[in-house]
Design brief:
The chain is of the alpha/beta class. The chain folds into 2 domains: 190 residues, Glycogen Phosphorylase B (Rossmann fold, 3-Layer(aba) Sandwich), CATH 3.40.50.2000; 170 residues, Rossmann fold. It has 14 helices and 15 strands. Strand 11, helix 9 and strand 12 form a beta-alpha-beta unit. Helix 1 crosses helix 14, helix 2 runs parallel beside helix 5 and helix 11 crosses helix 13.
């Protein structure tokens, strides 16, 4: 098939959406398909054809709207079997919703109704709302592809899209990189590097948005537990000064390690015991799947699409509230080594069912159905 993939940035050096598009294109090329990338910024990749899409950089709304306009103009000049977009553009055969939808993002990010209203009438949110309306209401795509049941429910609730036209395909994980064997390779040396003792329990939190993913709640839970044998790896590029100050003021300073972004994240999973991500909203936090694949039990919220893969007391815990005592209870339940081992093994077994190869197989099946029938 002749496939167009749309993503503003096509690079392994960027976030989940960009990396996903890169890996998907690589697998499609490997399977013998003719792959075209429509992007504004990219890194070279053998076997794919790059089409540069200009954007107007005056503001965020201008970037989003101009990228949508110029992408669709470029797409109209070439006949494709499938147009698969990771971005909000005016028309695509398949739109992959990877970061949730605008109304839910607004509710979670701005809980106060007055502030939410002010933000809602701002140019950026008006542009996003317009693009989503074009896609979901004005039938700007044949099929909506989501990575969780959570997002599927959100789309049905806010845009009344026919459930038959929404297909859930969970993210895949690179099990050659993320697997339980990383503990044998890296655990001892990593913990020795940071002076972590054998009896100490290490939590790991990974995000570039500390506020949205509720790092403050993790720190509060640690303060609630009052256990100086618990350490925390904080990995991500966000500013940590406020959190460091809070930790210092609550006698947690020496227990928290702010490590910045890491390209070799699997080593840090290997050196940890529990993955924590009490996020306010996440379509599907792929870091949860990576951690599970490395044999870590996961504690996250029911507003994270990755919670679809987690069962309480089986491979982790799903928080029903945004309260420190509930998170602390989950951590406390995982303090015994036997519990962590059992749930970590279950987590790895669950993650092993979601390889990138299986993901691509499902995507190709969807392509075939859309291209031959025009619908699912």
């Amino acid at each position: 098939m002749k496939v167009a993939l749309v993503c503003k940035k096509y690079s392994l050096q960027e976030g989940g959406l960009e990396r996903y598009t890169y890996f998907l294109s690589r697998e499609l090329v490997r399977a013998g398909h003719d792959v075209h990338i429509f992007a504004n910024i990219w890194q070279e990749e053998p076997g794919v054809i790059i089409h540069r899409v200009p954007v107007i950089r005056l503001s965020s709304p201008a970037k989003n709207l101009s990228f949508a306009f110029f992408t669709n103009r470029a797409l109209s000049k070439i006949k494709f079997d499938i147009i698969h977009s990771m971005e909000r553009i005016f028309y695509q055969d398949i739109f992959r919703v990877s970061d949730g939808i605008n109304p839910v993002q607004m509710q979670q990010k701005y809980p106060h109704p007055v502030i939410r209203f002010i933000k809602k009438i701002g140019p950026r949110r008006i542009a996003l709302s317009y693009l989503e309306h074009r896609i979901f209401v004005d039938k700007g795509c044949k099929i909506v592809m989501t990575n969780s049941e959570l997002v599927k429910r959100n789309i049905i609730e806010h845009y009344r899209v026919d459930p038959e036209n929404i297909v859930v395909i969970y993210n895949g994980v690179d099990t050659s990189r993320f697997n339980p064997k990383v503990k044998e390779k890296f655990r001892s040396s990593l913990r020795e590097k940071y002076g972590i003792k054998k009896e100490e329990l290490v939590l790991i939190f990974v995000s570039n948005d500390f506020k949205l993913k509720r790092l403050d709640l993790v720190l509060e839970a640690m303060s609630f537990l009052k256990n100086n044998k618990i350490r925390l790896f904080v990995i991500g590029a966000d500013n940590h000064r406020t959190y460091q100050r809070w930790a210092d003021n609550h006698s947690l300073g020496e227990q928290i390690l702010f490590l910045g972004p890491k390209s070799n994240i699997e080593k840090y999973y290997a050196g940890s015991d529990i993955f924590v991500l009490p996020t306010l909203y996440d379509a599907f936090a792929n870091v949860c799947l990576e951690a599970m694949a490395c044999g870590l039990p996961v504690i996250t919220t029911d507003s994270n699409g990755a919670a679809d893969l987690i069962s309480d007391n089986e491979n982790g815990y799903i928080l029903k509230t945004q309260k420190a005592d509930e998170l602390a209870a989950g951590i406390k339940a995982l303090e015994p080594l036997s519990n962590r081992t059992r749930m970590g093994d279950n987590a790895a077994a669950k993650a092993a069912c979601f390889t990138m190869e299986k993901h691509v197989t499902k995507v190709l099946k969807l392509y075939k159905r859309v291209s031959t029938k025009g619908q699912v």
